[in-house]
Specification:
166 residues; 3-stranded antiparallel β-sheet; mainly beta; Immunoglobulin-like; 5-stranded antiparallel β-sheet
Length: 166
């Protein structure tokens, strides 16, 4: 292969796939095709890229009055001191409970934005068992978007305020 035929491709940060929430890295593969785009092609093995990000959260506010409203500052994503981008998508997990704080974690949804309204349930669960009473506490965790959706990634956890009385 002649040196002049080597092509270099640079992938923009915004074009990377969703970060793997288990490994906290990007899983990437590429495809090489012939110049005529017809004769041959080959997929690379999956390559793992460690972005070495630092996530810089701000403040989070929780207000309850009939519904619970949670609002937070946009998380800044950096490598060293260089700002790469602002996070846009978040995975929200909620645990409804009584005074002891016992309850099951439930995935609420993935949102684009910095706030969510949570309707207070009439019951809550402990170890999968319905408690048939209304909770009076809520605990919230906000994660950066990752695949698969999971609470296993402590690195993607950006907000975990104390239990809140509703």
């Amino acid at each position: 292969m002649a040196i002049e035929n080597i092509k270099k491709v640079r992938v923009d940060q915004t074009s990377l796939p969703t970060i793997n929430s288990v490994t906290e890295k990007y899983d990437v593969r590429y495809r090489i095709i012939s110049e005529d785009k017809n004769r041959t092609s080959h997929w690379s093995p999956i390559i793992t890229i460690d972005p070495q990000y630092t996530y810089v959260p701000g403040n989070i506010t929780i207000v309850s009055s009939g519904i619970t409203t949670v609002a937070w500052d946009t998380v800044t994503i950096k490598i060293g001191t260089q700002v790469i981008r602002q996070a846009q998508d978040y995975d929200i997990w909620v645990k409804w409970s009584k005074a002891a704080g016992l309850g099951d974690w439930n995935y609420v949804q993935r949102i684009s934005g910095n706030s969510i309204n949570l309707v207070h349930p009439t019951t809550f669960y402990i170890n999968g068992v319905d408690q048939t009473q209304a909770p009076n506490r809520v605990t919230i965790e906000v994660y950066l978007k990752g695949e698969p959706i999971s609470r296993d990634s402590s690195n993607l956890l950006v907000y975990s305020p104390a239990m809140h009385t509703i």
